[in-house]
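Forwarding these from the shared drive since the link keeps breaking.
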Amino acid sequence: MSPNWAEENLNTIRTLMERTALYRRTLAPIMIYLGCIGVISAVVAELGLLNGGRAVRAPEAVALFWLCVGGVAMLGALLLARRQALGDPEPFWSPPTRRVAQSILPMLLAGLGLGLVHALWPLDADNPVFASNSRNGAVRLIALWLICYGGALHAAGFFMERGLKLFGWCFLLAGLGLFFAVNSPAILERLTAAPDRYAHLLMGICFGCGHLAYGVYLYFTEENSVEETGEVLDEETLEEMDEA
């Protein structure tokens, strides 16, 4: 056994924890940005600010609108991550970043595919390739989006902090609950309007407010996290490992 094994192991742990702190600092502004985009987009769609005062209601229009919002949100998140990488001695497309991207890609592509199906083939269309008369198509799509996005966050959580996996579970459970609710006659009959009427409200609450809440949590707990990291990686720990 190498006489310096304790110091080498401690240096490895220190590097991993420093990377975790770096990703945490990057994640907070990204989550706040995504939350703002979600809330603002929900208000714009509900009030019809870009549609002549008419709210976006058709399932295919809802799908197309939120796919565009998702594209803008992803582009902004990448720019924020790149800006953070330029300010720190860390390459933007580093091996850990590639692993995170590879882990979330399948579920994000699944959500993209579901959205494109709803956008390109309206639910009431007489299309020989794809046709469906299922009711409440917009809310069903949102439920599936929540499940896919939650799965992507949970997968990314294996390479980042534990809280991201819990955040992913929140989306997964919300999506499953929403999918159950939209298929439950006992719940639907209590609504004063069709479920699709609440599509933008659901997106604003789940994706908008959810990201905002998590981003604010990361922002205000960042200092405590850094202090805890410093306490764990002190010289006493090194001495104890040397003695062992």
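-- next protein --
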Amino acid sequence: MNVKGSVYRADIFDRFRPPDEPAVVANCAQCDGEIYAGDEVKRTPDGETLHNGYGYDCAKEYADLRTFNAMGTINIRGEID
């Protein structure tokens, strides 16, 4: 009982408890997977959010696809195969 004699009800304060699971705050621009509060991410100048770390290569793949126009082995003519 509190000071006034009424019974304290813990469920009144349930709304102030943090959620049991982290909230989804964004989707990855590379894999379209969910990004949760607390995840390690990178953000591009265009505002795209990407997974970074925890086994994800999304940031690297995103950069590779948008930075380079060819990948492979260069031949004697200077062409990339």
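The longest strand covers residues 24-27. Residues 58-67 form the longest helix (10 residues).

- D.
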